[in-house]
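Sharing a chain and its predicted structure for anyone who wants a worked example. Both blocks are below, sequence first, tokens second.
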Amino acid sequence: MRYRELGRSGLSVSEIGYGAWGIGESGWVGATQDESVRALHRAIDLGVNFIDTARGYGESERIVGQVVRERAGDEVLVATKVPPENGAWPAHDGIDPADAFPGEHIRTSLETSLRTSGLDHFDVLQFHVWNDEWVGRGDWLETVAALKQEGKVRLFGVSVNDHVPDSALALVRSGVVDSVQVIYNVFDQAPADALLPACQEHGVGVIVRVALDEGGLTGRITADTTFPEGDWRNRYFRDDRPAQVEQRVAAIVADLGIEQDAVAEHALRFVLSHPAVSTVIPGMRSVRNVERNTAVGDGCPLSADQLAVLARHRWQRNFYS
């Protein structure tokens, strides 16, 4: 496993991190605690030292905290997220920061996360939504500074709203944020236009989520794909969306001259080929997926020719809406 600096923080994170939404037994159907615990331990065995969870991910914080405490001899960095108090997802324009992230709510959410996980601090505390209108307003920054001073939080970050990377540009340029978490993949290449260069310029770490497009870039989604009842992907891949994805992935396979089973590896390598990226956090609910994905953290980016091919497969859309 190779490691990269998380912006200017002084912390080194594994190229492949662990996205822990899927193991929380909420949203994604099929996870079991026993397999999740095995997968987390295997990831740490293979060099993963960064795990991303959230207050809103069901049992995820509890399971992650259990494993991290069991691996006390290994330095494992854990990031969590504070949900907006007003429940507005995403954070649209015109919302007062006092309604979304008042200081008292931030502190209460963090304390709940600490109790749930059994940890004494989090390495990164992130707001689960963001709007650049909040820069310089509200008491959120004062609260974050206090939590850092108290040793309950090491770094502050935000999770950028889905498919609108420029909505955090003012925050990055303000110098008050340590990391941003953003959707960046072969289909959604928009962060490379402005956000990623800004993060490089200002020393902000980049945590990439949805690198595999919620499964779309694994090569396993076809027009006939179905998901268990209650699984949120029934909404994400509704109507003719699976057929659209199948066609797009088939074109990638043909243009790169690779096997269908190699799509996920190339999708992860695409993300890691950008120098601004600190870590990518695919969801990994099984030991098998852990072993396949962590093998990509070997420091081998795609070639210039491969990146040029993938640049032509940009496909801007929002399946969350």
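Comments welcome. The mean pLDDT is 97.
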